[in-house]
Design a protein that fits this description.
Helix content of chain A: 25-40%
Largest sheet of chain A: 12 strands, mixed
Strand content of chain A: 15-25%
Number of helices of chain A: 24
Structural class of chain A: alpha/beta
CATH topology of the largest domain in chain A: Aminopeptidase
Number of strands of chain A: 16
Distance between the termini of chain A: 44 Å
Oligomer: homodimer
Radius of gyration of chain A: 25 Å
CATH class of the largest domain in chain A: Alpha Beta
CATH superfamily of the largest domain in chain A: Zn peptidases
């Protein structure tokens, strides 16, 4: 379900930096390929030769054929074609020389029974809730096994109430509604997709007292306003609906009944009523065709400019006179999900595992999401298998995983990780994820200890459309389309920053539950979007609009394969800690600025209120009033965090120097490498984060009220954002202790032999 | 036709400062009213009492009744109801004690005969080009004497060609079209209203080789996206069309056949073919209902996000496959226009004239534009007449003028000014203009020498909806909605800046042709717009949506009446030169920044081109290319301007001090006051501006490529904007000489007795 990157990127290339590289540096080499981190000079040259060999084995036709087969029919978790795909994957991985197993779990999955959305007043309209068959896309005419538009893990419900338009349904929208005197209590909220992960919308609506929620795709965001609609172009036609999970993933992902445990046959299970991640109100997604009569029937205040979509109406907030009935009911089935796990034993360090994953389930045909990433991973597995067969096996073990049931809530990966937590904590060196991908620019996210590795690879891989590296192409896009701040950063002589990971794909359990250094890589920004989670995410759509000829599928395999092979073969594992320290420093600065901004805004608003400036500036004939409930923002003691960063910078620098020396010697102890990859574990705490103990990482977390969007140093940042000011100093203290301990840990490695 | 202020203001209160006060200071007094500039302490108190008396005579019911009568029928120049209105005005002014005459001119005015817009390919559509009758607006059902939608001073033409969408049709849009490889040569351009004065659109289209132009109102700008449409709300319904002149007003306004001369019966006239201000290509305005099939039939590239409107289509640039026929033909009639001129002799200085004007012609019913401003002026004239009759006549002469034929091109005022240039240059102290007005915030523009006077009055007049001054209400809106820069300026302890004047209403000939200090005042920002120049600018619309109860009409008369009376009665004319010097200093800074920005952008773009960054960043499957024709921007010698400003600051400060002393004595010589009001003349040059000698003012001009939008220090600013870099230093020199001479002039006054 990974989508954040492409979505942001496509809106404006200028924004991609939020999602991938936030900073860029000049090309670190000209002509000569730079020596890979973790290798001696000689070994590095051999590695580069191996990678060129690897690259020559990637074949776009393979990807194309696999996609045609895997995306031939709907293949959501539990579907017949999903099982066929699992068999195909098992067969292929075995052919390619992997020890392959199917790791199955029993999980609760809702299947829609009734879906009704009706406008009851002021006139009747019954929403079609179905996508059109379109010319030229044979797949769209298939109806067997197709999942109709629904939001997984909505509760059952049948509610009728007045409608309120809540824009994107994120916290700031409710603050504005309050200023208008509009309450969603007892009402049905209609929110548009975008700005937050979809599950946040019913969560916030319920917290504000709504009894039901609708989510629709506004044509402003990925419909006709954005570009030509399917089948003329890639964007959403008026029948297209984005499906998707609304499970409360920021609390915990995976099977709703077995938080923290693998959902094995006999696992201890919650009762469904006790599963807190299921929504509290019924919710359904609808097309803009179905949203038009509903929104058009709203009265009340005209929305502010930022709330306008692209439907040909005047947008009003309501509540009413539009009255809507929303019924959603589900068969709450226990189904078996199947992860495909394929292992290749490392020749030197079999107990150090490089894990490489991509999910295999889709909402329906899922050609883009997830098959475009899966076929790149398959190409990688095939080539690595060939290399091994020809006598060039990896030094460390490589584990390829094709996850099931990612779409409903990262279920396959989460259950496997929870089930195998002990061994993974011990053996997992790193986890590298892909998901849907397309044409354009490379987007790289992950643990900052992997930043230099990713950058070296991005400087090596050539973009299929131009003759430069994918790193240089990305840099050019920032230089042309970025903000001045981004351009200024580019001039600094360092690696491009990779984006920290929030959630939205299968890296979450690895990184945020167990503390395994993780990465997530995709291409995008030039593929039209709009097919995401609709009936139209088909081979026909993908091959016409998203990556014609699969050139970028090959580029993706080129990037991820080199990363995998370097992790597998480096004498010294290619972590670089100064990159982490440098990024952490910027996060602390960001958070301090956030507090300062909130403080000066609060001071300014309080003064304006005292001076009655709002009363004077706002139209007295309209209901919009001054901001309510202004809270003064105290000064916080950031010193512990800043002191920790200073120590960490030194510790990281010392260790990186030592590691460079060791790498030049060409050999490192298993123990040293073990300490290196266990370093990410030190950034976790067993108690987890406030309100959500499943999330243990103290540096990276999905936002409690953003969903996919990352919150770095989440204890501190979210306390400030949530205006829980009394708790901030404590959260700083706790986080600083984690970073201090981490610095100690690095110093410990530096001092060891 | 004054519209810029309200239009900008309504989009976002935050922007109003561009249009009115750009800077604000704290309230200059608390409790005690401040002493009016130009009066002694005692005389100031008497003046304030007189103004309170004046104010008590303003009556909303008068305004309402006059508007009902004046806007009862269409009253465009030459129409029967226009003549009836002239008679009514003459009768009333005479009743109120004014010596009243009708100043008539013979001018060329086109009347539409044929108007055809047809989509020929890929399917047929014939544009309706007519506005609907709407329920609840009796006026909209009148068809006698109604002017159908057209653009005055389009040439005749019948053209058929492929269509190209040019966004707003301003210079930067053509730069982008060039980067897409799209040429309008031989095509018909369709532009949306907005961003520039409408006449710029066919002018630029023709310069780029288009053979016809359509201008439509996109619903994003003042249709359903902005708010509820008429009759549910004030905004444009899908049949509404903005009429308006497209005469090349930035070259010269007024009668197209008599530039620089009054269009008296026997005046020497150009041949029509030699009138350069008539468009070079035919042009018609259309509704968004009529634009939809045309824009919907365009192919080619999808537009960038900034070019999107709110129609429910994917906007494409073309050219074609849409092929359009556009036919426009006109009866080119000589008609008689009638200005009403009403004079009240000043008791002490009869040869010093305060001129107060508002046009009386409308496109049709013209309730908002211009009657809302005219009835405020009438209330002012009536009250001042009463005061005079009761023994409180003005010391200086007051001339009220109701102009004809403003809409087609400021014709009535321009011809009168040209006809009476000699006497006006000698006797006119100042010109104060109003035009359409509404509910909300005060917008004040004008010569900066009047800035302090306007501010003092704005701090005196109480806003009808709140209990504070209109100045304080404006300040609150900047504090709540303004940019940080605007808020910072607010903190400085000085007058709010008033906006410099470009064009768009009848102040232009006074200020920019003759150098008479001028002002323009309106209220707005809380009146819904959309009726501007449509069939729906009716009493019904205005009284429901724009100023219910005429409270702001009275507030306008309160402001302008006090300004008029202070100008009429002050011992020392209330000019303050330090305000002018301070604003001029900021304009020089702005222009230097403009050059710096253009230079660094050019350097940056050149470097990006050299590095092939555009080639790498742009989608190679799409035609958008790097910017063409980059010109390096040299450094300019701004020293002459900056030295002139320094001298001017001292001269202004010295003179203001002297004037304050003289005012305290309570008496000033006629000669001193004459020198004061002749000061604005010193800012003009007989040679005018490059390419347009009619425009003589060297500080304020409408932009050659913006139309209404002001360009301060136009010689220098426009040379830089037009990339005519070779000429910039000369223009700096010429402008600096004007300012140096002006400083000398002020010093001369300071040194005189």
């Amino acid at each position: 379900m990974n989508r954040v990157c492409n979505q942001l990127a496509l809106k404006s290339i200028g924004i991609v930096a939020l999602c991938a590289f936030a900073v860029c540096g000049p090309t670190a080499f000209a002509g000569e390929p730079e020596s890979p981190i973790g290798f001696s000079e000689d070994a590095g040259q051999q590695q580069l030769a191996l990678e060129d060999d690897y690259k020559s084995r990637l074949n776009a036709k393979d990807l194309d054929q696999w996609m045609q087969e895997l995306a031939r029919h709907p293949h959501h978790a539990g579907s017949p074609h999903s099982r066929a795909n699992v068999e195909m994957l098992v067969k292929l991985f075995r052919e390619w020389g992997y020890t392959t197993e199917v790791a199955s779990y029993e999980v609760l999955l809702p299947k829609p029974i009734d879906r009704i959305v009706e406008l009851i007043e002021p006139e009747y309209y019954s929403a079609g809730l179905q996508e059109d068959i379109v010319e030229g896309d044979e797949s769209s005419s298939q109806r067997a096994d197709v999942l109709p538009p629904f939001n997984a893990f909505s509760i059952d419900g049948d509610v009728t109430a007045e409608l309120v338009y809540v824009n994107y349904g994120i916290p700031e929208d409710y603050e504005l509604l309050e200023r208008y005197g509009i309450d969603v209590k007892g009402k049905i909220a209609i929110a548009r997709y975008g700005k937050s992960w979809r599950g946040i919308k019913p969560k916030l609506a319920a917290e504000h007292g709504a009894i039901g929620a609708l989510i629709y795709s506004d044509p402003a965001d990925d419909g006709y306003a954005a570009g030509d609609v399917y089948p003329e172009g890639p964007f959403k036609n008026d029948s297209g609906v984005q499906r998707g999970s609304v499970v409360d993933m920021p609390t915990y992902p995976g099977d709703v009944l077995t938080p923290g445990r693998g959902a094995t046959k006999n696992a201890k299970r919650l009762k469904r009523k006790d599963a807190v991640t299921i929504t509290r109100i019924p919710v359904l997604p609808i097309s803009y065709r179905d949203a038009l009569p509903l929104l058009g029937a709203l009265g009340g205040e005209v929305v502010p400019a930022e709330w306008r979509g692209a439907l040909p109406i005047t947008y009003h907030m309501g509540p009413g006179p539009a009255k809507v009935r929303l019924k959603a009911s589900f068969e709450w089935e226990m189904i078996t999900i199947e992860n495909v796990i394929a292992r290749m034993q490392g020749t030197t360090y079999p107990d150090q595992w490089i894990i490489r994953g991509n999910h295999h389930d889709g909402w329906n045909h899922g050609a883009g999401d997830p098959i475009s990433g899966l076929v790149a991973m398959m190409a990688e597995a095939k080539a690595i298998g060939e290399l091994a067969a020809e006598g060039k096996p990896p030094m460390r073990s490589i584990v390829f995983a094709a996850w099931d049931a990612e779409e409903p809530g990262l279920i396959g990966s989460t259950e496997w990780v929870e089930d195998n937590a002990t061994v993974l904590k011990d053996k997992a060196v790193a986890y590298l994820n892909t998901d849907g991908s397309g044409r354009g620019f490379v987007f790289m996210g992950g643990s900052h200890t992997l930043e230099h590795l990713f950058n070296q690879v991005a400087r090596t891989v050539i973009d299929p459309q131009t003759s430069v590296s994918v790193s240089d192409r990305y840099r050019a896009s920032v230089n042309v389309n970025g903000t001045q701040a981004q351009k200024n950063e580019l001039k600094a002589s360092k690696d491009l920053r990779i984006s920290p990971l929030g959630s939205g794909s299968d890296y979450t359990p690895f990184l945020q539950h167990l503390g395994i250094a993780s990465g997530n890589i995709a291409f995008g920004g030039e593929s039209g979007h709009g097919s995401y989670h609709t009936l139209y995410d088909t081979y026909e759509h993908f091959s016409r609009f998203r990556d014609p000829g699969m050139a970028y599928g090959v580029a993706l395999a080129d990037v991820t394969g080199r990363v995998t092979l370097r992790l597998a073969n480096a004498a010294v594992l290619p972590f670089r800690f100064t990159n982490l320290a440098d990024n952490l420093k910027t996060y602390v600065e960001e958070i301090e600025n956030l507090a300062d901004t909130q403080r000066s805004d609060a001071v300014s608003d309080a003064k304006l209120k005292k001076d009655k400036a709002f009363d004077l500036a706002l139209d007295p004939t309209r209901p919009l009033t001054a901001p309510q409930n202004l809270t003064a923002v105290p000064y916080f003691n950031f010193a512990p965090l800043k002191n920790a960063i200073v120590r960490l910078e030194t510790a990281a620098s010392d260790l990186d120097e030592k590691l460079a020396d060791v790498a030049q010697d060409g050999e490192a102890s298993e123990a040293l490498n073990r300490k290196l990859y266990l370093s990410e574990r030190q950034l976790t705490s067993p108690a987890g984060l406030p309100q959500r103990e499943w999330y243990r990482h103290q540096v990276y977390a999905p936002g409690f009220y953003t969903g996919y969007g990352v919150k770095t140093l989440p204890r501190v940042r979210e306390a400030i954002e949530a205006k829980d000011y009394a708790g901030v100093d404590d959260q700083i203290q706790i986080t600083a202790q984690v970073l201090e301990a981490f610095a100690d840990y690095l110093n410990g490695i530096s001092r060891s032999d």
